[in-house]
């Protein structure tokens, strides 16, 4: 049997497959199924700063209607944030008693103020790591990319000052200078970057002429984006890279490792095929390693990264020129 063990964010993992943050990692039963299925670690369902803020806004309007004083705002702020965080902290504790694999907590950050102090509570609850899920849709035409990017760096800086557990940052590919931003973020002191998150998208119902939500699960074809970027950036950045989006089978897992990922996250695959599909993916990885004579992940990880390539230009080709398209 080949050795599938690896390290990611300084954590020792029995294999490189991690259950990404989703509804499946938001319940004790889901976590147990995923552990049973074979994943090496779980990223818990995120706590959403946005939800806390929305609830806070409601409470503020209510307080204003009742003619409450400004000081009570602080009270609401403290109470509401506290209640949400303590629920999440309880869930981390529950997760840690339920499963024996590493548990990575997840925070969806929207603003750079205040919430960084939650990170301390998350650490105290026993989380083995913290993943920050950060994305601001670049739709504001009055904000420069510089201004937007500063917010990412500020949030990371604040969180890193609060905790000692390893911190990962899960980002989107929506940066004007993506390679430079990945490089900068990787040198902030974070332990890992997760490339990339997949976001809620809108769709239109053309009969009702209304805005609806697009499907929430990825397809295997979506692997192409993160595959290219993991291959471009691995062996060039100052932290681990995890791949995320579009990994639905053993082949997808192997491709991401060949690109240079230290770990690979999957979510949609477990929704579609059940938590047991983790075991199938890992069996496919083992069988492939046997076939190719690899005894450990390090024997082949990054072998198809751009840094190792004799034809680096192929990773940067973007046009379907006749010559290449055949
Ligand atoms: C139903 C559902 C809920 C999700 N919730 C979260 C979340 O709370 N936090 C987060 O960072 N990502 C969340 N994600 C995104 C996944 O972690 C992952 O990045 C995305 O689905 C792409 O990976 P996949 O192709 O393996 O599904 C969610 C995805 C799904 C399908």
How would you characterize the overall build of this protein?
With 326 residues, the protein is of the alpha/beta class. It has one domain: TIM Barrel (Alpha-Beta Barrel). The protein contains eleven helices and 13 strands. The strands form three sheets. An eight-stranded parallel barrel has the order 3-4-6-7-8-9-12-13, surrounded by seven helices. The protein has a two-stranded antiparallel ribbon with strand order 1-2. Helix 1 (28-37) links the parallel strand 3 and strand 4 (41-43). Helix 3 (70-98) runs parallel beside helix 4 (118-124). Mean pLDDT is 89; it is low at 72-76. Bound molecules: flavin mononucleotide (FMN).
Can you give me a brief rundown of this structure?
The protein is α/β, with parallel strands linked by helices. It contains eleven helices and 13 strands.
């Amino acid at each position: 049997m080949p050795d599938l063990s690896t390290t990611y964010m300084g954590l020792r993992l029995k294999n490189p497959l991690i259950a990404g943050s989703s509804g499946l990692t938001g319940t004790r039963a889901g976590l147990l199924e995923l552990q049973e299925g074979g994943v090496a670690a779980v990223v818990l369902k995120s706590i959403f700063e946005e939800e806390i803020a929305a609830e806070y806004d409601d409470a503020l309007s209510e307080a204003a209607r009742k003619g409450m004083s400004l000081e009570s705002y602080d009270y609401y702020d403290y109470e509401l944030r506290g209640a949400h965080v303590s629920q999440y902290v309880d869930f981390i504790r529950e997760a840690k008693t339920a499963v024996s694999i590493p548990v990575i907590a997840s925070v969806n950050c929207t603003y750079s103020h205040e919430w960084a102090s939650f990170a301390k509570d998350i650490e105290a609850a026993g989380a083995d790591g913290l993943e920050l899920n950060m994305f601001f849709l670049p739709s504001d035409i009055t904000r420069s990319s510089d201004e937007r990017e500063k917010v990412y760096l500020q949030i990371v800086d604040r969180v890193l000052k609060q905790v000692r557990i390893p911190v990962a940052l899960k980002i989107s590919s929506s940066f004007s200078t993506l390679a430079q931003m990945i490089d900068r973020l990787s040198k902030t002191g974070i332990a890992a970057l997760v490339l990339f998150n997949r976001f809620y998208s809108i769709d239109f119902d053309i009969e009702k002429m209304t805005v609806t939500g697009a499907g929430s699960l990825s397809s295997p074809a979506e692997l192409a984006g993160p595959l290219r970027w993991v291959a471009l950036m691995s062996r060039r950045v100052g932290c681990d890279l995890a791949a995320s989006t579009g990994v639905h089978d053993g082949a997808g897992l192997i491709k991401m490792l060949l690109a240079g990922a230290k770990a690979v996250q999957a979510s949609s695959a477990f929704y579609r095929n059940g938590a047991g599909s983790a075991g199938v993916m890992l069996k496919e990885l083992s069988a492939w390693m046997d076939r190719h004579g690899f005894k450990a992940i390090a024997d082949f990880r990054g072998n198809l990264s751009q840094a190792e390539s004799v034809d680096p230009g192929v990773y940067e080709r973007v046009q379907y020129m006749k010559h290449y398209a055949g």
